[in-house]
Give the backbone structure.
Amino acid sequence: MQLMFLGPPGAGKGTQAQNACVKYDIAHISTGDMLRAEIKKGTELGSKAKKLIEAGKLVPDDIIIGMVESRLKQDDCRNGFLLDGFPRTLEQAKALDGIVSLDKCINIVVPNKHLVARICDRRVCTECNGTFALKLLESDQCELCGGSLIQRADDTEETVLSRISVYETQTKPLVDYYRKKGIVADIDGTGSIESVTKDIDRVLDKI
Ligand code: AMP
């Protein structure tokens, strides 16, 4: 199963991707998580990415494409993979076409008015990258692995507005790009996590 999840920041791609990857036993490839790992390691790429991420801008296509291309060659992708946060530009999508063929593009639709509140309420685990809504948390530790929960540096109101505008101009056109290929499934992302998961599973069970 070769999938990608598309949707604005705060649509729930990461949470839903984690569920789908466990259920279908496929590799979760989140370019955001990969970049944050580079930042944590203090690499040159990490320090370049940090500035762009915190400004709500995209990391250059050539860097991201090279990163994903080598990730897709790893053994855990043999049974399938789910791309979360990639591609984000037309150039990335065209490069991906030269590497693999996607079975499905899950397009999680959430109106802009919900996004800022959702993102500012988001907490992520520093160990397993699990994503949680602060308002639903019962403890200050990750319920998946016990790791510490933090607010991402780019989950501030100011940065979110820039990320939403980058999504509108650079990433949203990919919905049409993949629709023309006949592989888009639109999913209403405004419901509960469980109801969105059910809607996604209904589509993926048919592949
Ligand atoms: P995410 O965790 O997917 O929300 O990504 C966080 C940030 O990482 C984005 O706002 C971008 O700055 C950067 N990033 C992640 N994926 C990509 C990508 N495919 N292309 C360019 N920048 C990316």
